[in-house]
Design goal:
heterodimer; A: Alpha-Beta Plaits; two-stranded antiparallel ribbon; 4 strands; 10% helix; elongated; B: alpha/beta; 6-stranded mixed beta sheet; 13 helices; 40% helix; globular
């Protein structure tokens, strides 16, 4: 990954900006961590979870990933806390919990 | 060998686009620009020009189609005027910010209301700060020459910026004058193929038009501003090389009879030729007057302007646009700012006239010279004065 934009935005000077703000390489959305947009985080109750994978399927940011023992867990670097997973879960295994001030 | 033919400026611009061998034209007809897309559509239909002509549903779509076309590296041309330029306004910014070297002719037209299809510079001034390279043509030869030159400069890999070529609606767009048309080989010598280094290509995916959050937007704008200012080197080089090939040399600021002149008149566009006649008349009566024709509007030619006016006592700026509630005509404001920090500078006087197609004659320019001299000496109660308006205009106060 050599793209200039893969540096954190705050490291770039105006001289580093590509002509027209063009991103010359594809597949680098992961360079921008969007988890800090979140006000609520999804909490999984493994007792209730049936591993049906609907949350994984519905997550609009592909932030829910297969985890150990067949569970699906949100990657908090990218999860924006939209709550779709909690809404779609047929057994109510995911609850949205307010992010606490650090 | 070039040939001398009678052409209106619109057809001269269309001819330049044809000789530049444009790949894509997307335009929507609007008076007084209509003859340009009409002529180009005809050329494409008749097989004189191998290009895609996209008949769009509005000016907003016209320039949007041009963005896509430039993004794949196609040489792209469009034209508009007045309300059309207003309708494409948001896309005008996008073109320069994404650094797409589109060439656009603007047949300068007044803005509504009241509805007017006739000429003035209100449309141009509304896009002053949009980041395009902008030049004003004085006659039909310049309409041809500067259109051809615009492709060369905008597409230069050191520049990659869109270029607006302004000429006055009707007084140039619809008036036939002799124009020297070059041979295709000469054009090819001057204008290389467009090789866009960031052309969209499915085999080499990249992102154009990514969004810019607060941590990157300011840097992006700074880079764009530096690029526009630096384009001046290429602009000047382009004009030098244009002269070497075609024999006509252009400068950002043209001085006409300014040697030792105590009073200078400054104009843009076709009015400069009328003003030259007024300067000639006054000179023949022994007056110390000269004319400055501002050809390059953006990036603003600061050093050239300062050099051109440094020995004058009075500089009378004639605008074809009102900056409502502002300090004077928009060109005059820029000129004043450019001179403000100079130790020695002329007294700058602002006049506005020629709005909505109102003719400004040689006699009118003689009046402007006379009245300008008077205002410079005794001052005026008004921030600027209007020329050719029935009833004395008062109340334009700071």
């Amino acid at each position: 990954m050599t793209d200039k934009r893969l540096k954190a935005g705050s490291d770039l000077t105006w001289r580093d900006i590509e002509v027209g703000n063009i991103v010359t390489e594809a597949g680098n959305a992961c360079a921008r961590k969007t988890g800090d947009w979140r006000t609520e985080r999804p909490m999984l109750d493994k007792e209730k979870c049936t591993k049906c994978a609907l949350c994984w399927l519905y997550c609009p940011d592909a932030a829910i990933k297969p985890a150990e023992e067949g569970y699906y867990v949100a990657d908090l670097d990218y999860c924006k806390g939209c709550g779709i997973c909690a809404n779609i879960c047929p057994v109510g295994a995911i609850t949205m919990t307010e992010e606490e001030e650090k | 060998m070039s040939k001398r033919v009678g052409l209106e400026a619109s057809h001269a611009a269309a001819e330049a686009a044809r000789m530049a061998d444009v790949d894509v034209i997307a335009a929507y007809p609007i008076t007084p620009q209509t003859h340009i897309p009409e002529r180009l559509a005809e050329m494409v239909a008749d097989g004189e020009l191998e290009a895609a002509y996209i008949p769009v549903e509005s000016e907003h779509s016209a320039l949007s189609a041009c963005l896509g076309s430039a993004a794949v590296g196609a040489r792209t041309f469009t034209a508009t005027a007045g309300q059309g330029l207003e309708l494409m306004h948001e896309v005008v910014y996008v073109a320069s910010s994404m650094r797409y070297p589109i060439v656009m002719t603007v047949c300068n037209r007044a803005l509504s209301a009241p509805l007017s299809v006739w000429g003035d510079h209100s449309d141009a001034m509304a896009v002053r700060d949009t980041g395009w390279i902008q030049v004003f043509c004085q006659n039909n030869q310049e309409a041809f020459d500067l259109t051809l030159w615009a492709f060369r400069v905008g597409e230069d890999p050191r520049v990659l910026l869109p270029v607006m070529v302004h000429f006055d609606g009707f007084s140039l767009s619809h008036v036939t004058e002799p124009v020297f048309l070059p041979e295709q080989e000469e054009v090819n010598k001057f204008l290389p193929r467009f090789q866009y280094p960031f052309a969209l290509d499915p085999d080499k995916p990249m992102t154009h038009g990514a969004f810019g959050p607060p941590d990157i937007y300011s840097e992006t704008k700074a880079a764009q501003e530096v690029a526009l200012r630096k384009s001046k080197e290429v602009i000047l080089q382009g004009w030098r090389e244009f002269g070497d090939v075609f024999g006509r040399y252009y400068e950002p600021v043209e001085s006409y009879g300014t040697e030792g002149a105590r009073l200078l008149l400054l104009t843009m566009g076709s009015f400069s030729e009328t003003a030259k006649a007024a300067v000639d008349t006054r000179k023949s009566k022994g007056e110390s007057v000269g004319l400055i024709n501002l050809r390059l509007w953006r990036p603003f030619p600061f050093s050239e302007l300062r050099r051109a006016v440094k020995d004058a006592e009075t500089l009378v700026v004639f605008d074809r646009c009102i900056s409502f509630g502002g300090p004077g005509g928009p060109v005059c404001s820029e000129v004043r700012s450019a001179l403000y920090n100079e130790k020695k500078r002329p007294v700058v006087v602002s006049f506005v006239g020629g709005l909505g197609g109102r003719d400004v004659s040689v006699k009118d320019f003689e009046y402007v010279i006379e009245r300008g001299r008077e205002v410079a000496q005794t001052g005026s109660k008004e921030l600027f004065e209007m020329v050719g308006v029935r009833g004395q205009v008062t109340g334009i106060r700071g």
